[in-house]
Every structure is written in structure tokens, then in C-alpha cells.
Design goal:
The protein is of the alpha/beta class and 331 residues long. The chain is built from 15 helices and eleven strands. The protein has helices at residues 5-23, 30-41, 56-66, 82-86, 123-135, 170-173, 187-197, 211-222, 228-239, 250-255, 262-278, 286-291, 293-297, 305-310, 314-324, and strands spanning 46-49, 71-75, 87-93, 99-105, 112-116, 137-140, 143-146, 152-157, 178-181, 256-258, 302-303.
Length: 331
Amino acid sequence: MEINNEKIKRFQRDIERIRKELAKVIVGQKQIIEGIIIAILSNGHVLLEGVPGLGKTLLIKSLSQTMDLKFSRIQFTPDLMPADILGTNILMQGEDGRRFFKFQEGPIFAQIILADEINRATPKTQSALLEAMQEQKVTVAGVTRPLGRPFFVLATQNPLEMEGVYPLPEAQIDRFFFKLKIDYPDYEELQQIVGQTTVGELPLLEKIIDGEELCQIQSLVRKVLIASHVLKYATRLTMGTHPDSKFATPQIRRFVRYGASPRGAQTLVLAGKALAFMENRFNVSFSDIREVALPSLRHRILLNFEGEAEGVDIDKMIEDLIKVTPEREDG
């Protein structure tokens, strides 16, 4: 389908309408909403860290309504098996008495997936989900089945409880586009939440776009221009997370074991493009890169033993890196 300037402007207006629709049921959390929209426009997945009861399920379900996408929620538990996610072949009997196997799809066959408390499942089950995220297809009994498009996973993990959990390995965490941290609401927001959710039913949300239109927007986001000097800036920020890099800060050299992977630089650029598109611009700015730096890089930096013992704040290290990294190489 041909995309003209008028259609691009309509898509940009639609994204703003999605924000307004979500605000009808979600109080506050503007940065979280923006981060999730940026990720889904970039065709990436999100790891969300926060305590229970902060509206994660409501947010994702509401997003699926505004985008007219099939929603599925998977509660991860220690006894959850890969087949519980992917699906399995079950033995059926036809009217003629003959038996045959029929594939019963698991909850992964949706378009927006909420993987609740992913670190409670065993690594074997975690891998089943992460492989589907990476390949956007699943293989069961030797048969490969594609997943629906668009396909978006938001996985949550509780930062408080550490007993009976299986932390995601760094290589698997790296597959997530963003890591977002959801905070507890302030006094005014909590008051509004309680008043809004204890009176009656939540309002029905309007469908703004469908899956086909979202795929078109994802394609357009990749076409947003980025100048070479902005691309180099994103590269220097990523390289600055490595302790042996000339762009690293003294704190990073002391406390970091491994820096962000090339996926970190790719995320900075793609997220910057999505942010520019959302703000009706057709080129990525330095400020776009800085704004998406924390969710793009925080889960891709691994502290060494000294950093762990000192309780070093990775977000603070990234913020300090941004302050000292010049926009231009000769800066």
C-alpha cells in the first residue's frame, strides 16, 4: 500500500490519540507509556521492572484495545512448561472413528503478550518465550509455525522478591529492546487512581489503528533520517559503557565488567527514530538519543564484583556518561 505524506500525518495523529485514550484509564506513568509505545513502534520488546499492583496488566490490555490487537497474559510460575506457552499436539477422534493429532495453540499465538513475572519460571520455559521473541515463530514436533504480526512482548519482573526465582541471563536480557522501571504513584496520582477505579466500570477505549496499520508505521519509523554526526554520537555513548573504551568515564572503568552490546547502539538509533516520528519530525536529534539512553542501555551493562559490592547505580553511571560525552567528536 502506498504511503503518502497525508497518511504519515494521520499515523502521527493516531499515535497522539492512542496516548490520550490510554490516559482515560492509566493515571500518570507518562514515561512508561511513552517507552512502551516507542518500543512497539520499533518492533521491540520491553522488560518492565516494578512491584505488583501498579497497573501493568491494565496498561497492556488497554494498549491492545486501542490498536485492535489480540491480547494474551501468561502468568509465569515454577511449574510452567514450554508447551504451556507454545502449545501442543493433542489426540483427537473424528466422526469416522479415526484418530489424529491436532495442534492446540498456546497463549504465545497472540499479538500483544504480557509475560507476568518471567523470572519465576525455569530457564527452559524462559528460553521458549525468548526464542519466540527473537525468531517470531515456534517449532513444535518438528513443525514451524509463524506468530502473528505485529508481535510484542512485555515481560515483568518483581525487583523485591529474590527467593524462588530464576534471574534472566544477561544474553537473554539483551534481547529486550527497553528495560523500563515503573515507580509507585505519588499522593495526587494515588488519590486519582482510587477515585477512578472504585466508582464504576472503566471506560471503553476506542480502536485507533489495527495490526496492518501498525506494521506500516513500524516500516515508516525505520525510514526516519539520522545524520552521520548523530549516529556517531549514539555509537560513542554505547562504546562509553565499555570499561576499556577511551569514551568511558572513570566510574565505568572501575565498576563495569561488560558494556552494552551492538544491540544497544541499534536500540538507541531505532528508539530515537520512533521518538522523532512520534513528535512529527523526520530526523533524529541529539536530544532524542539522550532521552532513550537509559531504557536502551541500563539492562545491557554488567557490573564487576566491586560494582556489585558497592551497590553502584547503573542509571547514575549512564547519566554521568551522557553529561561528559560531547555531541561531536571534536567537541
